[in-house]
Amino acid sequence: CETCKQEVPGDCPVVYAAHAGYSRQWHPGCFVCCRCAEPLVDLIYFWKGGHPWCGRHYCESLRPRCAGCDEIIFSEDYQQAEGLAWHKKHFACLECETPLAGKPFALANSSLLCTICSHSKR
């Protein structure tokens, strides 16, 4: 088995990944996403960098995920701050919904606040 490196008995079902070639095999419980370890045996999986990926993490490896709505951002026009990304329309104060592009803001636990709402929370 590629994951656990244990021998697979001849009577045990195995998983083959077409892109990995038929020389590689996994126990069904060992065929998991390389990022989150989600079991992939009954799911659509993706192959990248020599490893299986779940759909969520494969997409995140290609495009950023919006911290506001948790959806993949396909547009090239999005806002980034402190390692996170937002659709332009979601880069707004969580309390008063004021758009924050080009304005000072506070970021706490992935939540955006304008300076006014941030000060009122103290």
TrEMBL record:
Keyword field: LIM domain, Metal-binding, Repeat, Zinc
GO cellular component terms, semicolon-separated: nucleus
Metal-binding is among the record's keywords: yes
Pfam family, one: LIM
SMART domains to which the protein is assigned, alphabetical: LIM
InterPro entries the record matches: Pk/Esn/Tes (IPR047120), Znf_LIM (IPR001781)
Molecular functions (GO terms): metal ion binding; transcription corepressor activity
The organism's place on the tree of life at top rank: Eukaryota
SUPFAM superfamilies: Glucocorticoid receptor-like (DNA-binding domain)
Domain LIM zinc-binding: from-to ranges: 1-64, 65-122
Protein name as it appears in the record: LMCD1 protein
Organism: Xiphorhynchus elegans (elegant woodcreeper)
